[in-house]
Amino acid sequence: MSNDLFEGVDYYQLDDLLTTEHKLIRDAVRQFVKQEVSPIIEEHAQKCETPKHLIPGLAEIGAFGPTIPVEYGGGGLDNISYGLIMQEIERGDSGLRSLVSVQGSLVMYPIYTFGSEEQRKKYLPQLGSGKMIGCFGLTEPDHGSNPSGMITNFKDKGDHYLLNGAKLWISNSPFADIAVVWAKDEAGDIRGLIVERGMEGFTTPETHGKWSLRASATGELVFDNVKVPKENLLPNAKGLKGPLSCLSTARYGISWGVIGAAMDCYDTALRYAKERIQFGKPIGQFQLQQKKLAEMVTEITKAQLLAWRLGVLKDEGKATPAQISMAKRNNVEMALNIARESRQILGGMGITGEYSIMRHMMNLESVITYEGTHDIHLLITGMDITGLEAFK
Ligand SMILES: Cc1cc2nc3c(=O)[nH]c(=O)nc-3n(C[C@H](O)[C@H](O)[C@H](O)COP(=O)(O)OP(=O)(O)OC[C@H]3O[C@@H](n4cnc5c(N)ncnc54)[C@H](O)[C@@H]3O)c2cc1C
Fold first, then answer.
1. I need a surface site. Which of 120, 175, 304, 387 has the fewest CB within 10 A?
2. Does pTM surpass 0.70?
3. Is 333 a catalytic residue?
4. Which pLDDT tens digit goes with each residue over 178-207?
5. CB of 334 shorter than 6 A to ligand 1
6. Is the CB of 82 under 6 A from ligand 1?
7. Number of H helices, E strands in the chain
8. What is the DSSP letter of 283?
9. Helices 241-275 & 287-315, crossing angle to 10 degrees?
C-alpha cells in the first residue's frame, strides 16, 4: 500500500463535466491521499487506530465542511466539489471519510443551518480548522432504523436543561470535543443540543471488536443527568426533519465517497489481472476475469453519472431526499460488489493487507448499514413512487 499507483477511472470522459476548479480540488485531495493516507492507513486499520495526526492536513485540503460558507470556516464550495473530496478521501479509506462526513455534514451543517449566530461563531471556525472534532448522536441501542422512537430526553430546569439517555454506534465519539445530540423535550419534540466533553455526567465509551471501519473510532454517548446550558439548544430545529436533513447531506457525500472505494478496488484488480500469470498467460486474458472487470467499469461509470447529476440537482436546490436515497443505496451496493469481485481476482493475495481491497470490503459493510440501511433506502424509493409507506 505504500506504493500507491492509483489512477482515476473515467471511461465516459466525465472530466469534461467538471470545471477546472473541480479538477484542481480533486487532484489536490488525491495527492494528499497518496502522500499521507496510503502509506499509513493499513497499519492504523490493523491496529484499530484513528489516524488523528491527519486531522490538520484534512482541514488544510478543505475536507471539513466544504459547502459551509468561508466566513464560518467552511470551504464555500459547490456540491460537486464536496462530492469529489469525499470520493478521493474514501478512495483512501471509508473510515477516514466517515470522520470527515460526520464533522462536515452531521456537526457543522446542523450548527450552520439550525444554530444561533453565537453558536455558529463559537463552533464552526474551530470545526472547519480541525481544532475541534464533533460527533452526531441520533442512533440509540433500541432505536436504529426508527429514530423517532428515541428515549433520550431533556427537561427544562429553569437556568439549564437536564439531559438523560444513551446513544450507540456514534462515529468519532471516543475523542470528539462536542456532540450534536438529538433528544426529546418535555412535549415529545425532537430537538438538537450541543453537548461538550467535560460536562458532568457525560461519558463516551469506545465500542471495541469491529471488523469494519477499524480506522474510525466508534462509541457510545451516555448522559447521566447532564446539565446542558440553555444556549446550547439549536434554536431552529424541531422534529425529525432536523436530523434527517443532516443525513441527506451526509448520504449525498457517501454516494460519491463509495465511488472512490470502488475505483480503488477496480484499479488494483485491473493492474493485478494484467500482471499475474497463470497457465502461461496474464489472468486478464481469460474471459471470466474480463467479464468481472468489464462489469466493474460499467457499474462505476453508471454510479459516477448518478452522483454527478445528483450534485447538479443539489446545487440547483432540486435534489429530493428520495433521490439521495436512491444514489446512496445504488452506489454503496455497487462498491461492495466491486470489492468482492476484485478480491477474487487477486486470489489469495486479495485477503492480505498488502492490498487495500479487503479493507474496503469490510468498511463498506458498515457503509451499507449506516446513514439508513440498504433496506430502508429501498423502502424510501418505494414510498416515493407509490405514495404508500411500507415501514410500519
Ligand atoms: C460503524 C458505524 C458507525 C455509525 N455511526 C453513527 C453516527 O455517527 N451517528 C449515529 O447516530 N448513528 C451511527 N450509526 C448507526 C447506524 O445509522 C445504524 O446502525 C443504522 O441506522 C441501523 O440501525 P440498527 O443498527 O439499530 O439496525 P436496525 O434498525 O435494528 O435494523 C436491523 C435490520 O432490520 C432491517 N429493518 C429495520 N426496520 C425495517 C423495516 N421497517 N422494514 C424492513 N426492514 C427493516 C434493517 O434494514 C436491518 O437490516 C453507525 C453505525 C455503524 C455500524
1. 387
2. yes
3. no
4. 999 999 999 999 999 999 999 999 999 999
5. no
6. no
7. 12, 9
8. G
9. 150
